[in-house]
TrEMBL record, chain B:
Protein name: Myotubularin-related protein 9
Main location: membrane
CDD domains named among the record's database cross-references: PH-GRAM_MTMR9, PTP-MTMR9
Matches recorded under InterPro entries: Myotubularin, Myotubularin-like_Pase_dom, PH-GRAM_MTMR6-9, PH-like_dom_sf, Prot-tyrosine_phosphatase-like
Family: Belongs to the protein-tyrosine phosphatase family. Non-receptor class myotubularin subfamily.
A cellular-component GO term for this protein: cytosol
Keyword Transferase in annotation: no
Keyword terms: Acetylation, Cell membrane, Cell projection, Coiled coil, Cytoplasm, Endoplasmic reticulum, Membrane
Localisation: Cell projection, Ruffle membrane; Cytoplasm, Perinuclear region; Endoplasmic reticulum
Keyword check for Nucleus: no
Membrane topology classification: Peripheral membrane protein
Species lineage: Eukaryota, Metazoa, Chordata, Craniata, Vertebrata
Amino acid sequence: MEHIRTTKVEQVKLLDRFSTSNKSLTGTLYLTATHLLFIDSHQKETWILHHHIASVEKLPLTTSGCPLLIQCKNFRTVHFIVPRERDCHDIYNSLLQLSKQAKYEDLYAFSYNPKQNDSERLQGWQLIDLAEEYKRMGVPNSNWQLSDANREYKICETYPRELYVPRIASKPIIVGSSKFRSKGRFPVLSYYHQDKEAAICRCSQPLSGFSARCLEDEHLLQAISKANPVNRYMYVVDTRPKHRMQSWRAIPKDIGRIILNAMANRAAGKGYENEDNYSNIRFQFVGIENIHVMRSSLQKLLEVNGTKGLCVSDFYSGLESSGWLRHIKAVMDAAIFLAKAIMVESASVLVHCSDGWDRTSQVCSLGSLLLDSYYRTVKGFMVLIEKDWISFGHKFSERSGHLDGDTKEVSPVFTQFLECVWHLTEQFPQAFEFNEAFLLQIHEHIHSCQFGNFLGNCQKEREELKLKEKTYSLWPFLLDDQKKYLNPLYNSKSQRFTVLDPNTVSFNFKFWRNMYHQFDRTLHPRQSVFNIVMHMNEQNKQLEEDIKDIESKIKQHRNKQTEDVLTKELLNSVHPESPVLKTSLCFKEQTLLPVNDALRTIEGSNPADNRYSDYAEEFSKSEPTVVSLEYGVARMTC
Amino acid sequence: MEFAELIKTPRVDSVVLHRPFYPAVEGTLCLTGHHLILSSRQDSTEELWLLHSNIDAIDKRFVGSLGTIIIKCKDFRIIQLDIPGMEECLNIASSIEALSTLDSITLMYPFFYRPMFEVIEDGWHSFLPEQEFELYSSATSEWRLSYINKEFAVCPSYPPIVIVPKSIDDEALRKVASFRHGGRFPVLSYYYKKNGMVIMRSGQPLTGTNGRRCKEDEKLINATLRAGKRGYIIDTRSLNVAQQARAKGGGFEQEAHYPQWRRIHKSIERYHVLQESLIKLVEACNDQTHNMDRWLSKLEASNWLTHVKEILTTACLAAQCIDREGASILIHGTEGTDSTLQVTSLAQIILDPRSRTIRGFEALVEREWLQAGHPFQQRCAQSAYCSSKQKWEAPVFLLFLDCVWQILRQFPCSFEFNERFLIVLFEHACASQFGTFLGNNEGERCKLKLQQKTMSLWSWVNRPSELSQFTNPLFEANNLVIWPSVAPQSLQLWEGIFLRWNRSSKYQDEAYEEMVNIIEYNKELQAKVNVLRRQLAELETEDRPRQSP
């Protein structure tokens, strides 16, 4: 690779992220075309995919060498000390180049080869079939149909080719509405609730600006409300915070501002539906902040978490001031609003934000997940992501910064969705077929660029990139590995879990340690109940099979014995009782099964992994009266 | 005094009970000397059966002639009773107030309680000091039992029997006692068999401003060190606080006089600081309307988890001195009855697998809290809702249980007991039908004749039928030292205590059940496979000689 000048550096130190005494491991750093690899003296390997690198920083030179700080998109943070500055500089430059590719074709997915042939690859891509999914929901039907309006991406470039709309919405209405909606993203079906005959629809904001209206758009909304035979009223949910929207729609005091505002609105294309112009709608703001607020919120959260020697108050005040959990709660509340509208009032809901690909995707997908237990299965969750995120044009490549580009477009919108799902798995431990590892694995691959699913920003772009021919789909690999991702406590039969009704009182939201400290093992519980139960559940299945197996063998033996006896009786020769039989009665009971101990290895039993030894040292620094635990250093100043 | 005098209205009909997560129930309210009982007279079950001693505070209000009493319990539960009739309501309220604040211990329920179960093992004799000492005496001969405090004269808050260095006679102990706060001379708290290091605890030395010293004290402490070894004195107070204590006659060990010892100051809070922390935390948890920012800022402002972290860190430090540094330690704060016990008992949880078993933990509570003279009566007299704040109230024991819960969460397979067990201990420390947590020390318990007049909590807990609900299905003995993480990201709010009455844990409970089922099923299958394997093996050996006779 042209970018790599140094492939191997020895005597590199990997610092413990939280140690204040600069505890470290020494090892060798390797740079490959796709990964950065560190092998420590215990032969433990740390692999870092170049695409996962969010930032590389060269810190000021120290006496022990040149520090290199790498922050990853999967929240891994590594801090190396490279002995020679030259090496550090080479690695730094290489990583800068390798972590920010200019073109899609240079991403890992285009060179990744999992040894599948073309038909296997194609089968993999066909695993998730959205037409099949709409059929499962019950569309097309007498009220909803497949529209061919966007078959050639002529109306909306960021929508998929196949869209479901009310049967009574004619093409001119669709075309007219699309012109009135930001980026042409007119209202279409996202989820259809068969029992309630109500729908979740999605679109972008209307370009209503100060007072514009569009009859076709009004007609399309009416068509959606008419497509619901139970309740003619429908909710229009604007997921943006009210205060941000009204600041420019409120009547300004001076005329200059009016014009300025109107201009700004137009230019920004902001607007929302006026209840007076649309019949039978109820308008509702739900208050989720925009991608920029979310980006800086996560940034703050990570800053707090990364603090060495963090105290409890700083942790909680940092958690508060980052606003992260507040945002998560806002998304959850919006999804609950959707689910309630459908379950309680049988009302259809139309959701939008500005462009309808960030907050709208969060709310529609999470709302569907609350309503439909299918999306809580492994396969169903994949379908949900394919439908509401990938096909409807959530800009994965921009949001996770796959290519070197505008950093202002990067935002953890999808991460927030995964976190909301995690919170639901915490509140309803038996309602999900998959476990936390599944969510973490998906998060890993949003950024890894190893598979084609999340490359590009919309379906059209993906088709142009020929991803289905040149890259592999993630889903079949996850399905092959399904065992790892199953929730042993899952109860698919329980009727109570058809619709989830989460409680969003603030104390139910907790910091997701396993996501944001995924790689900081010292912060985790040393024994995992989940893993033990998961293994035990698997072992149970194995045992059930063993039992069947042994039982059939015993049966065979018994049959054979009776046969033997019969033949021998025929021969009239009675066999004397074998002496071996007696000893066999004393046969020792033996456990031939894997002993559970293996599952219960205790991580971090080495106190060096633990942090309070550091704390003790810290105290010795901040408070002179505390002695360090090393005698030689002990100094008392009282 | 007769309870009847306090109960003006023993019975009211058509009272409506409101509780979190249950539908309102209408029934008859009865007041007895020790209980508040509400029965709907359906299915002959009582909807409410509450000990007066569990009541922390009550509020009453009236709308017309309908009175409402809001009862706030020491276990943080809040219930509401709607009582028709103003007079009845006032009578009930004043009776509850009087009955829940009886000042004589001998009027408490444990003195009246008659158990409905057969006592298999008398808990009063389950953890005798002599038996506990036997565990050590096999490993070391450097310690002895001293009966110096038989009459509770040398140290009123110590038990009659304590473990002290063999080389120190009772006369010297008497002198040391006069040099230590409350007469609490250094005694053995824990002997670490792996390397012979020990944890000792005491009250603060009474050095005062003029630096008084006591040769016997120095000799006693040094007697616990092996030749050439050094030790650590962990003072649970910050240096500032310890220095201030000198003005009141207290103080700390001067380096010069204890040259083989290094002193470490930590700052574990006590008394009203903890009490206020608890009040703030409970208040934050009880308000469901808090938005996210407010909730987080209230949780932070309560400082509860800061206290948890501080206590755990100190306990880890103590354990580290013993296990890693191979150094003995002496722990004290001021009196040596609160933060000292938190640290000594948690260090044992970390170091000693026995204290992570049910019986071992009971022994630990008995030894390090009850016998060691933690003033339960004073500390647990009131809880988070009471407005009359007494300066000796503090949730010291609850903080200890919280710390144990934090370790349990991090090592979910290393404890024989489950969270339920810890919650039950908290409940019984607040209000109980058993005598175990009555009184402030062994001396008081002895005078009250608790052993003769009341039932021990352990007599009930250790019955097989009760034990099963406190047993952790994941338990697998782990003989290692368990080092918990004390990072803020690793500590959690103890929902089982603080959110218990504020959110439904139905789904979590069901998931727990399912987990138990999987584990039980696993055992069943393993047993079955073993039986079948044996059968098969028998058949095979049977067959072999037939095939080749």
